[in-house]
Amino acid sequence: MKKYYSLYQEGSEATIHIYGDIVSWEWFESDVSSYTLSKELDGIDADAINVYINSYGGEVAEGLAIYNSLKRHKAKVRTVCDGFACSAASVVFMAGDERIMNPASLLMIHNAWTSAQGNSAALRKEADDLDAITQASVNAYLANVTITEEALKELMDGESWISPEAAVEMGFATGVAEQDEGGAPSQEVGDESGAEPEARRKHFHRPGENRGSGDKKAAPKGGAAGDTETHSFFERALARKGVSQ
User: Fold this and answer.
1) I need a surface site. Which of 107, 149, 164, 245 has the fewest CB within 10 A?
2) CA–CA separation, 213 vs 208, rounded Å?
């Protein structure tokens, strides 16, 4: 069994761990591609699939393909954020019929990006293409979130980190894995009216912003909001000039 990515079945339940980058070419043991996962999913005959995620994300196309593969499977899918579900990994998280945040976990959403070269017409086209690619991820979020598309895109423009409480209130998640007195996971729900929830103001923060107050300050060196490790995949993607998220 691989240390970072694995898929195995016990009885009527299957378990997937995505603990690395989501890529089209698996360079490292921790990487996972849509091809590998979808082929393994084809051999799974289970009633439930549990997907545990701790990933900085990866290539947009791969994340979308994994999302659609999970949505298409007949089993009930339960996604669990074990640490970070960033970028394309947050799209995979949205494939769950049940989407659970751990108390010590975060989502991060942003727009697709790439590297490009060429004349002004080519660069304008590249920008338009990126908008179209980003919209595919927007559509995946909109299938579940309770905020408006405008509010969602504002969060993506800001490269926003989203706490468990805010994820539930905005519909990204269905619950937080804290046990209540009855022993069941919390299943708080957001406002289905489409109005912007108060938790959006209280619990999400952007890189460089202090979550604890309204005052902005530089993120501490090595902290989640400015952690250079969050760019480890992106640096590799730039070398391949792929479209990443």
Assistant:
1) 149
2) 12
Chain segment 82-136, per-residue pLDDT in tens: 999 999 999 999 999 999 999 999 999 999 999 999 999 999 999 999 999 999 9
DSSP secondary structure code for residue 4 in this structure: S
Q: What is the DSSP letter of 225?
A: G
CB atoms within 10 A of CB 38: 16
CA distances from 9 to 96, 171, 230 (A): 18, 29, 31
Give residues with Cβ within 8 angstroms of 223, minimum separation 6. Answer: none
Nearest-5° Cα angle at 89, 197 to 141? 40
Helices (runs of H) and strands (runs of E) counted in the chain: 8, 10
Residue numbers annotated as active site: 87, 110
Closest CA relative to residue 60, chosen from 127, 108, 112: 112
Q: Which residue has the tokens 């539930």?
A: 168
For 138, residues 6+ apart whose C-beta sits below 8 A from its C-beta are: 149, 152, 153, 156
